[in-house]
Amino acid sequence: MTTFVEDRQFLSPVLTQATAVVAQSGQGSYLTDTEGRRYIDWVQGIAVNALGHCYPSVVEAATTQIAQIMTGSFNLVGYEQTGELARRIAEIAPGDLSTTFFTNSGAEATDAALKLARTATGRPGIIAFKGSFHGRTIGATSVTGSAANYRSSYEPLMGSVYFSTFPAEEQCSPGLDAKGRAAFALDQLEQVLEYLVAPESVAAIIVEPVQGEGGYVVPDASFLQGLRKICTQHGMLLIFDEVQSGYGRTGKMFASEHFQVAPDIMTLGKALAGGLPMSAVVSTRNIMDKWISGTHGSTFGGNPVCAATGLAVLDAFEKEDVLARSASQGEYMRSQLEEICADSSIVSQVRGLGMMLAVKLTHPDGQIGGDLATRIRALCCERGLLLLGCGTNHDCVRIIAPLVVDRETVDEGLAILRDVITDVEAEIGASV
User: CATH no. for residue 391?
Assistant: First the structure.
């Protein structure tokens, strides 16, 4: 039997991996590699495993369903599990969102949402934001603005897409507070509508309520409320990408709840099916009724195994009071990260909401700390803690622990992170 290292020559090099770890198994907060080494996993499939690896009731739901039927194609037959999942999503979704189209990944959900918006409005234009990440298909790449390299090899992309400013510190005039950045960004959007595309040509504005890949940037509520007002005024649809921020990650079921704003269309993914590939586009019945039957579809979308695990996830959320646990644990983790920030010469900021958290790295002389973030992640991996980066300058380290992580594991992981930051500070001091 060959090893993954030997077999990797048969995999496309377009896929990069953040570590050399080869996973064998996972349980809860921990991942074990093929050499038997155990890691605290604070990546969790990039927010996929909200309940941790192999949550028992999710595994049971999957195995039970697999023994009954794995797929018959939702284009051909219906599944009770998928219908029930759609109903339960409607019961918890914000505003009047009540109708769901299921697909397989966040990027596919983005593409579907864009097609829905264009069909429902009869307009071509889409406005997205700098710093955004919505996926890597051609459509999703067209509205992604977190890094030029995601787009550079694929031009020309989808037309009639316009980018505006997100209220991140890196994008706004210096010295502004959160409300000032929100006002600045809304003014920039008004200029896009004045100089680049007429409002009556815009189908939708697509935005992450909390930017993920762009650096875990939380806008002031006035920004999203302003977007809602502009969309309503001009007959545009407001799309919230909740693929990463949804399903309890921010301490509420959906990040939109923090801002008291309901979108017209919402995309979901990642945590939706407990580790299996499933995503969704959720909208109102009125908007969905304008999507012409047969003009979009998905071979695997609505898969009964994924739907069964999706139901198990929602059951666990209720049984384990996951939202309250996420909010409480998130407050504790943030307080500990703030202490690290206060004591550190290279951690300049703690970002995020709930358990969607990140620390920003900056050199003592103010230079961007992308190299520091890379070094910290590498040392943490060596010491048994898996982390990913984010930020348009790759200068943030994000923490995506299971929402049900216990306090002992939190403290263990934070201790590793704290020690690594101290060691990196010493390395910098030695090199000066």
Answer: 3.90.1150.10
